[in-house]
Each structure stands twice: as structure tokens, then as C-alpha cells.
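User: Show me a protein chain along with its predicted structure.
Assistant: Here is one chain, sequence first, then C-alpha cells.
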Amino acid sequence: MQTTWKGTISFGLVSIPVHLYSATQEHDVPLHQVHAKDGGRVRMKRYCEREEKEVPYAEIAKGYESPDGRTVTLSDEDLADLPLPSRKIIDVLAFVDEGAIDPLMFSKAYYVGVADKGAAKPYALLRDALTESGQIAVTKIALRTRESPAVLRVHDNTLVLQTCIWPDEVRPAAGIAPEGDVTVRPQELKMARSLMDTLSEDFDLAQLHDDYQQALQQVITARLEGVEVPHEEEPGEAPDNVIDLMEALRSSLKQAKGGRDAGAGEAGAQEEPAPRKRAPAKKSAPAAGRTAAKAGSKTSGKTSGQGSAKSPTANRSATRKSSAPRKAS
């Protein structure tokens, strides 16, 4: 692993000669600029405006233009010899709780290794002290052309130096969050916490992969082989707002649990109306029977009151007809 920086950690009167190594690396698909018309490679040339010619990289220096238009040229030697204590020394300024530094300030991470065998014991002392206390060390360091605040912390039994941006480089968040009083009901918060717990079960960050790089590689392969470029199906339109927050949370929780009912009690309550709809249907038959019986009774009375034109046999027949609905019940 290539050394990025060499210097010393100053921990009170304890000095630890160390080397820094880049702790991260990005895995981008290498792309370069080409002429869209014919695919010709487009290269950037270092061109001097004053002499109107291309200049080699060895003749490139850094410059600063003042507000009145004057230019100051700074060589690599000027930048390397800055009167800056943090250029070769990582001076521990304080120890704070691990959560005292907002992650928004964190930048690039470097593994810290010992420069020689004699640094092993003070290195282990600082590492173990940080582990036991649960704290991180606040420091400053000058890397290349920039001085940055940094923290020393422990990762996998190894000291890690993580550079930070300066506090005044963090933009204020005023006016971005929703304004006004927004009321969150306790049941909504409880459902959200339940969803959080479900989504966190058996989560392994190491299982994540870069879908963008994989899709880009598929497109490149298709172009090289002269076949149709794969396309993702158009996603449906996302809703403009959440009409029923509880319903959205409930559905999300059910989906996260793999189809299991997120709330058995509430789901059961929602399924109750179906039996209640069948219950009135059972009661309607006796009611219809009673109505028919009354109608039959009135008909029988009217029939008997008309004289001897109807025989008792007819009356008994009408009575049997009126009682039929009761048998059907």
C-alpha cells in the first residue's frame, strides 16, 4: 500500500512516528471524453495564453490572481516549505465523545501505521485508550496544499485518521426543513419505529453493491457486441403526497415482513364487515314470512267475510298458503 503522508502523532509528550495510507478507493468504470461524431479521443492540453503554445507539465506551477489583477506564482517548494506546524505533526488537541462530531463534517479516511518498531507501544497505548474511553482524538493535519481538522479513531484494531471540513464550511440548513407545526400522532410514530426495526433485521452493509456500475458495464458490453442495449422499465409515477400516512406505513410494514400481516388486530377489524353483511340476510326470511302471514291472514279474513261463495276448504287452503313462508324459514 502506497504511503500518502509521513509524520508524527504528538500525544502530550508522547511521539508516535507514523505513515498514512488511503483507507478507501472508488471503483468507477473508466470513461474518457470523445468526439460524439466519430468517436475520436478528446484530450486536454495545457496551453499558455501569453505564449500561445502548449507547455509541458513540468513547467506548470500554481498561481493566485489578486483582486487588482496581479498574479503571484507559487512553486512546489513554496508550498512545501510553509511555516505550518501541522505539516509534519498530527497534534492531538482534545478528546471528545465519538458522537460529538457531526458526520456531516467527515471527509477522507486514512489508515495510520507505525513508521518503525519503536512506535508500536505508544501506538497501542493510544489505540487502547481510545477504545476503552469510547472517545476520539481531535487533531489538525496539513495534507498537500490544505490544512484540515481531523479525528483519530479506532477501526478494526487500527488507528484511522479522518480529515474533516472546517465548521464554517458547513452550510446552514435554515429554511430547508418544513416550516410550521407538524403534528405526528403517537400511533404513526409507533408504526414508523416498527417499520424501522423490521427493515433493520439481518441487514448487512457488506451485501450492498453498486447497481449503477453494473448497469453501465452492461451497456458498454452491449455496444461492444453490437446487440440491443438493455433498458430498465419505466417506473410508475410516485405519488405527489401521502394521503393516508398510517395506511402507507401499514403497507410498508407488511411488505417489509414479506407479506405477513403487519397488524393482525387491525386487519381482523377490517375483515369483520363481511360476516355482518350476511347476518341481516338470515333475519330477512322470517320477516318476509311474517309479512306474508299477515297478508295471508287479511286475505283469509276478507274471503270469509264475502259470504258462502267460498267453502271452508278454500279457507283452509289459503291458511296453508300463508303459513308456507314460515316453513321456508
